[in-house]
Design goal:
The chain is mainly α. The protein contains four helices and two strands, in the order ααααββ. The longest helix is centred in the first third of the chain and has 44 residues. The chain has two domains: 92 residues, no CATH class; 42 residues, no CATH class. 57% of the residues lie in helices and 7% in strands.
């Protein structure tokens, strides 16, 4: 029975409401911005240190404003190349992880009768599992469902050598 297990419910976006998807996207975006923001002091210091030395060498010693304009042109070209790489990479990742991309291929949903047969449960237990927002499912070693509880329950891990 364990070979028949698939991630068939937890990550299906159609089971999440639009509000839940928007909340998760907002939290993810906010945390990535926070992560980037936490790196700013180090990045700024390194950029300032190398930038001051580089600007002094290129502008003051090498020829003044003409060299500054040339330097800004090269910085613009490098920035556009980096931007092109990041946008291309993001587009490839977006296409891989959405729609019919290779990472989203999954088995079709089971028919409710087939699902009951697979888990060896009755219709009332299946309904209880489907409508529960937070459930705890107890299983034996053969992956047969023993018990379904609404809400959280403590996880008890037996000590080595103890019977469970």
């Amino acid at each position: 029975m364990a070979k028949g297990l698939r991630d068939s419910t937890i990550h299906f976006r159609e089971f999440l409401t639009a509000r839940q998807r928007a909340r998760e996207a907002f939290i993810t975006t906010a945390l990535w911005f926070l992560y980037g923001y936490l790196w700013l002091p180090l990045v700024s210091f390194v950029a300032w240190y190398f930038g001051v030395d580089f600007a002094y060498e290129r502008v003051i010693r090498a020829g003044g404003p003409d060299q500054l304009i040339l330097l800004l042109l090269w910085f613009s070209i490098i920035f556009l190349i980096i931007l092109l790489i990041v946008v291309t990479w993001s587009g490839v990742q977006y296409s891989r992880f959405t729609g019919m991309g290779e990472r989203r291929n999954r088995a079709p949903l089971l028919d409710p009768v087939e699902e009951r047969d697979m888990w060896q449960i009755d219709e009332s237990l299946q309904l209880e599992i489907k409508v529960g927002q937070v459930i705890t499912i107890s299983m034996d070693n053969e992956l047969h469902i023993l018990n379904v509880q609404q809400g959280y329950s403590p996880i008890i891990i037996p000590a080595p050598g103890e019977a469970s």
